[in-house]
Each structure stands twice: as C-alpha cells, then as structure tokens.
Amino acid sequence: MLELYDFEEAYDKVQEVVLPTKLIKSDYFSEQTGNQVYLKPENMQLTGAYKIRGANYKISKLSEDEKKKGLITASAGNHAQGVALAAAKQGVKATIVMPTTTPLLKVNRTKDLGAEVVLHGDVYDQACEHALALAAEKGYTFVHPFDDLTVATGQGTIAMDIFKELPTVDYILVPIGGGGLATGVSTLAKLLNPKIKVIGVEPEGAACMKASLKAGKVVSCDRVNTIADGTAVQTPGKLIFPFIQENLDRVITIKDEELIPCFLDLLENHKMLAENSGLLTIAALKHLNVKNKKVVSIISGGNMDVITIASLVQHGLIMRNRIFTVSVFLPDKPGELTRVSQVIANAQGNIIKLEHNQFVSINRNSAVELTITMEAFGTDHKEKIIESLKEKGYEPKIRDSKSVF
Length: 405
Hints:
The chain has 17 helices and 14 strands. The protein has 405 residues and is an alpha/beta fold. It has three domains: 211 residues, Rossmann fold, CATH 3.40.50.1100; 91 residues, 3-Layer(aba) Sandwich (Rossmann fold), CATH 3.40.50; 78 residues, Alpha-Beta Plaits, CATH 3.30.70. Strands 1-2-10-7-8-9 form a six-stranded mixed β-sheet. The protein has a four-stranded parallel β-sheet with strand order 5-4-3-6, with helices on both faces. It has a four-stranded antiparallel β-sheet with strand order 12-13-11-14. It is elongated, with a radius of gyration of 25 Å.
C-alpha cells in the first residue's frame, strides 16, 4: 500500500533538490481544446526532467551499507541524470547504463554530474538487463527507474504540487514509459480526490501499458519504434502495475507525427522546449473529448539534442505548410528565372532554395526544370502562391520538401 503519509514524507524530502515548477495557464491550448489547460513544466527542473524526485527519495531511503556499495541504474537519460545528481549530493558513487541510441546531450550531462556511463543495447530493456548483470557482479545497489514503489512515490510528489496550486483540477495527463510516474501521480491524486481523472499517455510505437491493461497482466511489446525516446519501453513495471490498474482511468496512445506540431506549438506560444516524451500530454489534449474542464498536462522533460530540435523544426514547418517545394518547367532562354521569382515575390513568398536543371529534356522550349523551395505564412498563403504561378501560365507540381535544410 502507498499511503498519504508516504507521499508527504517524499514531498518534504524532494524539496532538497527540486526547483519550483509552477503551473502555467495556457490560453493557446485552452482555446484550441475548449478546456482550461495548465502546463506542469517539469522540463524546467535542474536535470531537465521530473526524475530527480524519485531518484532523490529512493537514495535517501537506502541504508548506509547500500550507499557504500555504490549505485547502478539503467536509463534513456532523464532517470540517469536524476540518479547522478542525487547520488552526488549524498556522496554515493553512481554507474548508469544507457542505450546506445540515447541522445548525446543526455549522455554528456549524466557524465558531467559525476556518474560513470556505460552504453549498451538499442533500447532501455537491453540496457536494464546489462545493469542488473553488473549489479550482481560488482555488488552495486540497483535503482530501478520505474518499477520501484519508493521511486514512484517520489515521482508522485508532482501531484501534490498540482493540488496545492489547483485543488479543483479535473484531469491530469501523465506520460507513460514504464509506469513509475503514472503510478505515483495517479495514486496520490486518487488519495486526494477519488473523483479526479488521471489519464496516461504513451507513444503508439511503445504502447506496452495499454496492451498490459487490456490483457489484465504485464505484457511486452514485440518491438519499440518511436521518436519519444524517454518512453521507449517494451515492458512496464510488474510491481507498480496493480497501482496502475486501480488508479489510472485510461491510456491514450499518440502517433509520432502528432508530436511534431506540438513541439512548434509549445515553442512558439510558451517559449518552452520539451522533449518528445514530454510532448505526449500536449498531443493528448485533442483526444480528451471533454469541454470546460480544468486539465493539467505534465511536461515530463526537456532534454533534447540540437540535431533532434532541428529535425522537429524542419518537419513541423513542412507539416504547417510554412515550407513547401514546387517544380515548374521553363523555356531555356534568358529572363525566365527572373520572371518566376517576381511572381513569387509579388505573392509575398520567400525563396529559400532553387535547383535549375537544363538537362531534363531535349526540347529547348520547355527544357528547364526549376525546383523552388520557399517560405509561406501557412496553408492559405501557400495556395495563394501556387495560384499566382498558375495565373502566369506555369503548372507547379508539389514536391517533397524534407531535404530542404
């Protein structure tokens, strides 16, 4: 059993390491969904994610002998940083096993916090298996990232924060990887208000919790394939699963492509950077099918490398029709390129890239293929530019823009 007392103890303990992440009322998402939407920005923690809560509480509960042996854990990055920081503050050696696919930013930050990093496996489950083997070999104390009730209790202190600020909250949306955060948040939330709805959100490409709830027991995904690396888990926790069954109202799954516009929405409207796993609860807002409710989306983390950020921006702009590519055929004679450029300029399009190919045809009257990538203000403006080209006698064909950057 997890009692209110456990969460109150954990709440007091995590104050040693957490930064205040006050709820942010989102006018943009409220207008989009017809609800009162609040963001819980755990991406603003010192380690860039909520994981510092569970890690600090867990290590504080270990015996002195366990601490002397040293700690080991497996993580895709956020739990790693939480354990590394908490261990450093309590003078304990920490070894972290991370999948080889972990973003470089998370690897380097974990090292910077004083932990020894071992890269092993393609997904969390493989890294975890290796960490357990090292723990047995070297006598380390293993700190599980999610299948541990003490860790889950520390994560659940987020719900205490939420209720202190917004006692009348109706819905809490929580990301799910292995289920530790969802366990803590849903259990404490139901203790504080049995009528509240707590909904888990996981990527469609790693929907192990939804499959387990449907089966009535813990089951594994056949494979994991998602850009939400922080929630790329094949098998949910067995110890915490009964708490999920009892306290979580349902699970929403999100396609990867839904996360891309959410990244831009959060960045442009709140100047906030969230990693893909942290965006799950933003994407889930449109799946709620409720109105006039107070909804809190937990933004679980914000650790993302620059290459991933660039990719999300590129794909997001393309999805929003703010970047697009067309091709037109021109006569092979002087001045034609200037003429096309003027048509686009008059329609307020901004050319980013031109590719001029003279060798697609032997017919010099229409021998040049011009591929144009340009910026627009959105879908309506894109259509206006295309229509302007048609009015001048061109026949623009929409092309793939993904290689523009």
